[in-house]
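# nightly structure sweep
# worker-07 picked up a monomer target from the shared queue
# config: single-sequence mode, recycle default, output format = structure tokens
# input follows
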Amino acid sequence: MNKPNRKDIIRKEAPLVKDISVLRRKAVELEKEKRLKAAIKEEKDRIEVTLEEKAKELNCMFGLSDLFEQHGNNIEQVLQSVPALLKASWKYPEITCTRVSFDEKEYKSPGFRRSRWKQSSDINVAGKKVGEMEVYYLKKMPNLDEGPFLKEERLLIEEMARRTGKAAERIQTQKQLEVEQDSLRNMNIALREVLVKVQDEKRDIGEAIQANVDKIIMPILHALESEVAPERRKYVSLIKQNLEEIISPFTSKLSKEFMSLTPAEVQICNMIKNGLTTKEIAQLRHISIATVSRHREHIRKKLHIANKNINLPTYLNTFMAEDSQPYARVAYYI
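# output follows
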């Protein structure tokens, strides 16, 4: 019997070696596929956990916004519901307890007690600490980003505390504004009462001035007018007319209506209204007739009657006749 040589053995075993090689490659591919599936599952689980935590965060912040919308400016009613919001938003709500302190008052979740596993954030109003938000785990849990807590939970509790502080600051400012508005409203009422009283006093003074002019000064001027020389009577008449101006303030009204008039022009208007001629005005003011004439031209322009067929004395008397309430004018003049 012939003994098989090495080449024959290799040729016969070649298919077997090839099959073993194929099986090994398949085993490697299966192992890679198994690891890939495990990695995909792990990544899927991580994403699901992340989405779940994000959903909790959003629910927590939206819940806080809803509370402020429901209760408006009542910060106490808002804070009573915040511990439950926080408890439901942490990774292990079944072993979580929470507390919110604000302005020396505390709001707690049922069965609250402190433990060594704590996460907290200060509540600040206008840069000053007025309270604190606290989250506790009642038993030890696996370490994550901050002890047993997630980094997202750190960001959430800080955001909740920040929003609460800002809302409290807004409410505080609004209440202070309402107090100031009430105070201002009361001051306005008091001021109106004072103004009414001042107007009453002005009216009384005006009536007293008119009575004194009518009863005391006018009779004296009437007697004086009959005693002085005819050429001087014009001056007495002018004094009488100026006294009447205290009761009927022509110059005040004219200056208010035509603010471009100078004081000298206003005085000349008063003389023209009282019937003085250009010559008489020049003598009384110690100026030339030409100067008075220029004043008259300027006055007509400022009264918007230049180049119009309007008599200046008539216009001025008509202007004054539009106001026929002497007592009101006395109050204004004073």
